[in-house]
Design goal:
Number of strands of chain A: 8
Order of helices and strands of chain A: EEEHHHHHEEHHHHHHHHHEEEHHHH
Number of strands of chain B: 9
Shape of chain B: globular
Largest sheet of chain A: 3 strands, antiparallel
Distance between the termini of chain B: 7 Å
Helix content of chain B: 10-25%
Order of helices and strands of chain B: HHEEHEEEEHEEE
Strand content of chain A: 5-15%
Distance between the termini of chain A: 49 Å
Shape of chain A: globular
Strand content of chain B: 15-25%
Radius of gyration of chain A: 23 Å
Oligomer: heterodimer
Number of helices of chain B: 4
Helix content of chain A: 40-55%
Chain lengths: 417, 241
């Protein structure tokens, strides 16, 4: 009998299924993993340090770049913490807009997760299907903020612009004829809300398509069922939140349990798993997409029926309108002060968390009364999840590492910060 | 904006179970409230308090949500005097040695800090009773800050403590594997300390002669455009929207 010794293997940081820049040191015995040591920080940009040197509003854009597949949810936690410390009122319309975009973001995130997860395990087509729908949602981002990814749309006190009444349209080109373009633009004739409404009516069918490809697929099940099982007790110990915790059978969702904005007025369910394996977490996220779709529909209904302010009119915090700056002395001064110095927050500590697509995304803001955060701590949901990788992959085969990284929905922007 | 100081939600005051718990279990430890929602204990009692909070008959904080380490050395120090006028006119508001403007040579710790320099906040969440609590410990020693590790109570503390050690240099005694986490291999210093320059100390570039990446002192200049000011919201006019 040959004596088989364990050996160490390097995985990443430039591995396509490492979801960015994860470097893993795997200790193997044959093909079975004995220990996994994730090395992170290859995308560390010092967001927390940078935020300490800037007035509050200048860091909103940095929040987008944390978890760069669920941009607006990150902004949301940040502006909520500022609002909580400032104690200002946010118009109800702004709250609906934020919730709607949070849910659009959740679908965006879950679509990317689904595509990437399936691709990692070996199913190419799901990726293409998922990106087809992502495109439409990116267009919503673009319509409302001008950018497709890093929106910087939320502001302390509301959102920067109201929903536009027209959608950007495709233009004729040598690759697409007039007829094809007209078909593509069909849903884009009305306002942004009409476009999202059309999307919501199409989307459940799309989810059915993804499910037809995966849910009862034998290979998919072989790769995910009973892989990376986390019990309820271990999930608590390991600090899991979001779909990772719900997959282990804990009905915990901040939108229900500690509602922020207007979630308490909306009707939706929290899906939970039972075994805590990769397959359960897959089912949980699929159902979450359906629930998000339901929430978006309710928001559209409200937003169509109700007009109103979209940002607080407290000009010490929010910028006055361009017109009033030109005519009104007070507004002129507010504008100058806001953009040269920012605003000061009262001294104090706050923690604000949102139910981010990946789990609990929280901002701890410590203010010493100045115009810059004294300490900004970002609680990224992926951070404790990746920390648990060692425990989740131990005893599995090397090919399961990829499935488990996929199920954790890892994005390095938020983990490395 | 209200004129009164905003008060944070105080779970302790709202939540009867928690209040009773603090009376019953924790009255032997000295504690006080800070910012209404944070409970501060002496660092010697850390393990006992955390064990009690994680596992007792009345309320369980199953999840350790976050560990936040703070360096208080620059707290409440502004770069621009706004409270009173002086005969020097308006300054540029740029102090050379304030936070974010340290250069490679000049990093210097502010010596007139009011209280202990380092603190750590443990943000706990109870799923069963749906509440949160912040427990704070100041590190007694400013030069060699250390706290007991809670990895034996919550497994998730592992990386949080490694991060706090990496970025602020707080040593967690009893941690099984206290290595750096986020910074580069062989990194020197603790970036989130207030005396660490915003631009860093070293930069990397590719050396053509040596045919490898080399480290050298930073060549960029610190550039913080907006001075840090502290304005009391009660100053000046207070017309509220």
């Amino acid at each position: 009998m040959p004596d088989i010794k364990s050996f160490t293997m390097n995985f990443g940081p430039q591995h396509p299924s490492a979801h960015g820049v994860l470097r893993l040191i795997l200790e193997l015995e044959g093909e079975v993993i004995k220990r996994a040591d994730p090395h992170i920080g290859l995308l560390h940009r010092g967001t927390e340090k940078l935020a300490e040197s800037k007035p509050y509003n200048q860091s909103i854009g940095y929040m987008d770049r944390l978890d760069y597949v669920s941009m607006m949810s990150n902004e949301h936690a940040y502006v909520l913490s500022i609002e909580k410390l400032l104690d200002i009122n946010v118009p109800i319309r702004a709250k609906y807009i934020r919730v709607m975009f949070d849910e659009i973001t959740r679908i965006l995130n879950h679509l990317l997760w689904l595509g990437a997860h399936a691709l990692d395990i070996g199913a190419m087509s799901v990726f293409l299907y998922a990106f087809r729908e992502r495109e439409d949602l990116m267009d919503c981002y673009e319509a409302v903020s001008g950018t497709r990814m890093h929106a910087t749309y939320y502001r302390p006190g509301g959102v920067i612009k109201d929903l536009p009444l027209s959608m950007p349209k495709y233009e004729e080109s040598k690759w697409k004829s007039k007829k094809e373009i007209n078909k593509l633009n069909e849903a884009r004739e009305g306002s942004l809300l009409d476009f999202i409404e059309d999307f919501c009516s199409r989307f459940p069918k799309c989810v059915d398509e993804y499910e037809a490809l995966l849910t009862d697929n034998r290979i998919w099940k072989q790769r995910t069922v009973d892989i990376g099982i986390v019990s309820k007790e271990r999930a608590f110990q390991l600090g899991f939140t979001g779909p990772m915790l719900r997959g282990s059978g804990v009905a915990w969702d901040l939108r229900k349990k500690q509602p922020y904005e207007i979630y308490s007025e909306l009707d939706f369910d929290i899906p939970i798993g039972s075994n805590g394996d990769c397959y359960d977490r897959y089912l949980v996220r699929i159902e979450e997409m359906r629930q998000s779709n339901k929430i978006i529909k309710q928001c559209i209904k409200w937003l169509k029926e109700n007009e109103g302010e979209i940002i607080s009119d407290n000009n010490k915090i929010t910028a006055p309108t361009r017109d009033s700056v030109k005519e009104d002395m007070e507004s002129h001064i507010y504008h100058f002060k806001l953009f040269t110095e920012g605003y000061c927050l009262p001294e104090g500590e706050v923690y604000c968390a949102v139910e981010h697509p990946k789990g609990e995304f929280g901002i701890t803001l410590i203010s010493d009364g100045s115009n810059k955060p004294y300490r900004l701590k970002i609680r990224a949901p992926g951070f404790p999840h990746l920390a648990a990788l060692n425990e989740m992959v131990r005893g599995h085969m090397i090919s399961d590492v990829v499935a488990i990284i996929g199920t954790q929905d890892i994005v390095f922007g938020e983990i490395d910060r | 904006m209200s004129k009164s100081k905003p008060s944070n939600e105080s779970y302790l005051k709202e939540n009867k179970i928690l209040r009773d718990l603090f009376k019953k279990y924790l009255d032997i430890y000295e504690y006080y409230f800070e910012n209404n929602s944070t409970v501060v204990f002496n660092q010697d009692s850390l393990i006992e308090i955390m064990t009690t909070l994680q596992n007792n008959s009345q309320i369980n904080f199953e999840i350790l949500i976050d560990i936040i380490a703070i360096d208080y050395s620059d707290y409440g120090i502004s770069e621009w005097n706004t409270s009173s006028a002086n005969n020097k006119g308006y300054s540029r508001g740029i102090k050379k040695n304030s936070s974010g403007r340290y250069t490679y040579e000049s990093s210097k710790t502010n010596t007139n800090q009011p209280k202990k320099r380092f603190a750590t906040i443990y943000n706990l969440l109870s799923i069963s009773s749906n509440c949160r609590i912040n427990i704070k410990f100041y590190c007694d020693d400013d030069d060699n800050p250390s706290l007991a590790s809670v990895t034996s109570i919550w497994s998730s503390a592992d990386w949080y403590e490694r991060e706090a050690y990496d970025l602020l240099g707080i040593v967690f005694i009893g941690h099984p594997d206290l290595r750096r986490l986020l910074t580069d291999y062989g990194f020197i210093g603790h970036p989130l300390r207030k005396d660490f320059p915003l631009i860093g100390n070293v930069e990397v570039n590719y050396d053509l002669n040596k045919e490898r990446v080399v480290y050298q002192p930073v060549t960029i200049k610190p550039r913080v455009l907006i001075p840090k000011v502290i304005r009391n919201s009660d100053d000046g006019d207070n017309e509220d929207a």
